[in-house]
Write a structure and sequence with these properties.
The chain has helices spanning about 10-50, 60-75, 80-110, 120-150, 160-170, 180-205, 215-245, 255-265, 275-295. The longest helix has about 35 residues, at about 10-50. It has about 300 residues and is mainly α. It has nine helices and no strands.
């Protein structure tokens, strides 16, 4: 990723600390903005998995969620655990993405301040998503379960869901859906970082030490969010339904995909995409601006 601030001393140790601190703050902050939209997305995906959908469309889901629980309980209930999860997710993603680039530079004999080819950055993005999936799977499983359980009953909590999952499947049950999460994150992160880097390269014309304006970072972040979700949303839909289905009558990933296609065709895999893009575009823009600005102003 391009440096948007003054040059700093580069070393693997310092780079690691910078990515973890910056990614944690940026990830947790952006989650506050996107969480209500994510709640609606998961509920829409769950609704489409039922014989009789609960909601006609995203707007119907928003209205009924508001009438049932109001703003705070309807859209922000259960926010704190995902904030911690987002901090872990984004710090892991940026850390592994940038560390992969540094390893490539070291192996090839480059200076750490040198840039690498775009194709190498795409591979680093895929590697970052691969690493992040192992952190993200249990976080998303608990989040999805919680967001759907609030449709069925008001009295639920993250600790109760954790206990229920462990009682059913043991600790490995927290990684249910790891395969689909890994596929989504590897492909999605490649598109996410790829779009971001491509837009920045367009503005900088490959000039080193180019100082990006805030609106340029936000535009690049917006394109990153669009690329991630438009490419991998079908995988996300199948993953969400797989993670929240009833354990009494579990369906395989292929069963779920087949049911979605038979019932709603190809566009059934994109149920909830509109509301997801409404949150992803600004959230991704905010995240990248925070990441770049915080990183540039760290005292080390």
């Amino acid at each position: 990723m391009k440096e948007s601030g003054p040059k700093k001393q580069r070393s693997l140790g310092l780079d690691a600390v910078r990515e973890i601190v910056t990614g944690s703050i940026a990830g947790a902050t952006s989650k506050v903005f996107e969480f209500p939209f994510d709640t609606i997305k998961v509920r829409m995906q769950y609704s489409q998995s039922l014989p009789q959908p609960l909601f006609r469309n995203s707007w119907d889901c928003i209205v009924r969620s508001y009438k049932k629980d109001g703003i705070i309980r309807g859209f922000y209930r259960g926010l704190v655990p995902p904030m911690f999860g987002a901090a872990m997710e984004i710090s892991t993603l940026f850390f592994s993405y940038n560390m992969a680039q540094d390893v490539i530079k070291i192996v090839r004999g480059y200076n750490l301040n040198d840039d690498i080819k775009q194709v190498d950055k795409l591979l680093c993005g895929a590697f970052g998503g691969f690493c992040t999936s192992f952190v993200l799977t249990p976080v998303e499983l608990l989040k999805c379960r919680f967001q759907v359980e609030t449709l069925r009953a008001n009295k639920t909590s993250i600790p109760k869901i954790v206990r229920a999952v462990i009682n059913e499947k043991g600790l490995r049950g927290l990684w249910k859906g790891e395969t689909t999460t890994l596929i989504r994150e590897a492909g999605g992160s490649m598109a996410w970082f790829g779009n971001y880097e491509a837009v920045l390269r367009h503005f900088s014309h490959d000039k080193k030490d180019f100082k990006f304006k805030t609106w340029q970072l936000m535009l690049a972040g917006s394109f990153a969010g669009v690329g991630y979700h438009c490419l991998m949303f079908p995988v996300d839909t199948v993953k969400s339904i797989y993670q929240i289905q009833e354990e009494k009558n579990p369906r395989t990933l292929l069963n779920i995909a087949g049911q979605i296609y038979r019932k709603n065709g190809f566009f059934g895999f994109y149920s909830g995409l509109s509301v997801t893009l409404c949150k992803s575009i600004p959230a991704s823009a905010i995240l990248f601006v925070l990441y770049e600005r915080i990183k540039a102003n760290l005292p080390f």
